[in-house]
């Protein structure tokens, strides 16, 4: 049983690869190595491949064939909201085109199991802020739109040729399951704060006048190792003939405010954090939390890590990356 993981050398992908290997699966990585590193997945065959390139379908089909792949976990994608607003056509080519490649290649060789990485971004700014999978899909930026289109594409492939598919909608992913698998990208709250602390600068809070208990935005942070486990559960679930759902929020059901996150980071790192509060960031919903009940009920998944684990492991991995000379990846726009 060989599983192809696209984007497997990235931050989340490398955790998924380890979780699959721990579950006894043979894993092959497909990655363009644009924002990732081969060193994270040394134990597995790696094919360097840009899924949005014109010859990608044939090349990926050859990889699937060569390894007699039985399933695909498709994570490879661009994921920066701001960049997607600036370069929407490129985002559609990369994310929608890349998925098109995966589906064509899978169909060509008869590989009919697929786990697709979707995002909380498909919900846009939902009323009330607490969502379930039945909350309408209404993305407000090109990144979220590419994920919504992706969900339609995999569902259409299911109807057209019997693909067994599931979309996992990631909420705010953070932490590290292993010291060497930290998030090298300084793009999200956790790493942005750690980066500021290292530079001895004040972390920035985007607005403290939201209608939330402490005025800062509330999010649902999920440990990357728990997210990786959800992929294994979702892949195994594809073998069931009586599946009722093909979308799952991967979240904990627990909201954490920016101020609470800063307090947790202060406690773990031993820094007194005096943040600089600036204006709200455009497009930030006050609250974005999922009940995540479906994942618990249908797949028996439970998050094993709380906020302290998320922050503690992110910090350890951050320090370990610095010690091994890994350079942070910063926003392109
Ligand atoms: C978290 C909170 C900020 C930085 C993004 C994507 C989403 C999904 C998850 C992948 C917000 C606040 C942040 C800072 C701050 N990605 N913040 N100061 O925007 O919730 O979600 O990642 O699918 O699609 O949009 O994550 O980490 O940027 O922000 O105050 O320096 O922290 O306003 O409330 P976000 P984030």
TrEMBL record:
It is an enzyme of class 5 (isomerase). Pathway: Carbohydrate metabolism; galactose metabolism. GO terms for biological process: galactose catabolic process via UDP-galactose, Leloir pathway. Its EC number is 5.1.3.2. Keywords: Carbohydrate metabolism, Isomerase, NAD. Residues 3-242 form the NAD-dependent epimerase/dehydratase domain. GO terms for molecular function: UDP-glucose 4-epimerase activity. Belongs to the NAD(P)-dependent epimerase/dehydratase family. PANTHER family: UDP-ARABINOSE 4-EPIMERASE 1, UDP-GLUCOSE 4-EPIMERASE. This is UDP-glucose 4-epimerase. It comes from Cellulomonas rhizosphaerae.
């Amino acid at each position: 049983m060989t599983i192809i993981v696209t984007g497997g050398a990235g931050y989340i992908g490398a955790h998924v690869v380890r979780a699959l290997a721990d579950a006894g699966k043979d894993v092959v990585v497909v990655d363009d190595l644009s924002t990732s590193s081969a060193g994270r997945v040394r134990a597995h065959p790696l094919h360097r491949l840009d899924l949005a390139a014109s010859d990608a379908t044939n090349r990926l089909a050859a990889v699937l064939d060569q390894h007699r792949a039985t399933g695909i976990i498709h994570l490879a994608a661009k994921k920066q909201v701001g960049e997607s607003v600036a370069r929407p056509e490129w985002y559609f080519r990369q994310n929608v085109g890349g998925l098109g490649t995966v589906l064509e290649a899978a169909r060509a060789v008869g590989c009919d199991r697929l786990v697709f990485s979707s995002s909380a971004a498909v919900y846009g700014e939902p009323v009330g802020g607490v969502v379930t999978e039945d909350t309408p899909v209404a993305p407000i930026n090109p990144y979220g739109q590419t994920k919504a289109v992706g969900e339609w594409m995999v569902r259409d492939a299911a109807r057209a040729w019997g693909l067994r598919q599931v979309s996992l909608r990631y909420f705010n992913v953070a932490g590290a399951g292993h010291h060497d698998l930290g998030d090298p990208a300084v793009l999200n709250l956790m790493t942005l704060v750690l980066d500021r602390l290292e530079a001895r600068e004040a972390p920035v809070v985007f607005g403290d006048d939201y209608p939330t208990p402490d005025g800062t935005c509330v999010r649902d942070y999920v440990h990357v190792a728990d997210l990786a486990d959800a992929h294994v559960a979702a892949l195994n679930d594809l073998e069931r003939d009586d599946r009722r759902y093909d979308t799952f929020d991967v979240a904990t059901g627990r909201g954490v405010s920016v101020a609470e996150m800063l307090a947790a980071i202060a406690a773990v790192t031993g820094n007194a954090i005096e943040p600089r509060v600036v204006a709200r960031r455009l497009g930030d919903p006050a609250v974005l939390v999922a009940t995540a009940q479906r994942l618990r009920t249908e797949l028996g998944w439970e998050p094993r890590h709380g906020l302290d684990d998320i922050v503690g492991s992110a910090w350890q991995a951050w320090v370990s990356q610095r010690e091994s000379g890994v350079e942070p990846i910063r926003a392109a726009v």
